Amino acid sequence: MIHHERKILLRIKAILLLGGSIWALGLHAETLGLGYAADEQYVAGQHYTVLETPVATASAAEAVEVIEVFSYMCIHCYTFDPMLSSWHEAQDDSVDFVRLPAVFDPTWQLLAQAYYTAQSLGVGEEMHEPLFKAVHVDRLDLRDEDSMAQLFQRHAAVDSDTFKKVSRAFSVKSRVMQSRGKSRSYGITGVPTMIVNGKYRVDGQSAGGNAGMLKVVDFLVAKEQAASAAGAL
């Protein structure tokens, strides 16, 4: 009886040692940035889409570009924005985060124009949340140019004439058209959608919600960083 119990204890000890070794191996892989290789927890075609034709990025070679395709007209983008902002603040210089306004109809195009007007004026951060709130909280009709100008004056101290001049500029309208073209290249059919390094498309439906979308993005960023590190060896 004592001998039998001893054999059971030895088996339990062996199992625990084996489990510890497997855990340590997984931790070692994760430390090297290769955790995704050991356990592909997110699968192409299920949790994210691999673009048939990669789109060139504008980021530095050593950075992974992450784009959020969004619209101020989209309520889901509005509710996602605080979570996305927190994620963005936690990133270092190895991740280059960019917003890209979607253009699905004339009203969305007008809001994309407002986004690039704010960028051109250097007040993108000041106007980002007010533009969301103007649409979804205050219910303002921003199709009226004077209403949009007043919004910029109230939140970013941009006078009406300056706003209208920049908003009507060819450079701003050109950026809106470029945004439309990029969205088509990414195969965007809805927002919010995220693009990682011009190669992968992630949306809330495939990722299981907004929080899931950011987890898949983190996985793909790590995947790209590991591939870059391996290529540099």
Structure, briefly:
The protein has 233 residues and is of the alpha+beta class. The protein has ten helices and five strands; from the N terminus they run H-H-E-E-H-E-H-H-H-H-H-E-E-H-H.
The helix-and-strand class reads: alpha+beta
Name the overall outline.
elongated
CATH topology of the largest domain: Glutaredoxin
User: Which band does the percent of strand residues land in?
Assistant: 5-15%
Identify the CATH architecture of the largest domain: 3-Layer(aba) Sandwich
Give the rounded overall mean pLDDT: 87
- The radius of gyration is 24 Å
Task: Write structural notes for this entry.
By secondary structure, this protein is α+β, with helices and mostly antiparallel strands. The protein folds into three domains: 1-31; 42-102 and 188-233, Glutaredoxin, CATH 3.40.30; 105-184, Glutaredoxin, CATH 3.40.30.10. The chain is built from ten helices and five strands. α3 links the parallel β2 (64-70) and β3. α4 (106-121) packs antiparallel against α5, α4 (106-121) packs across α8 and α6 (145-156) crosses α7 (160-167). The protein starts with a helix and ends with a helix.
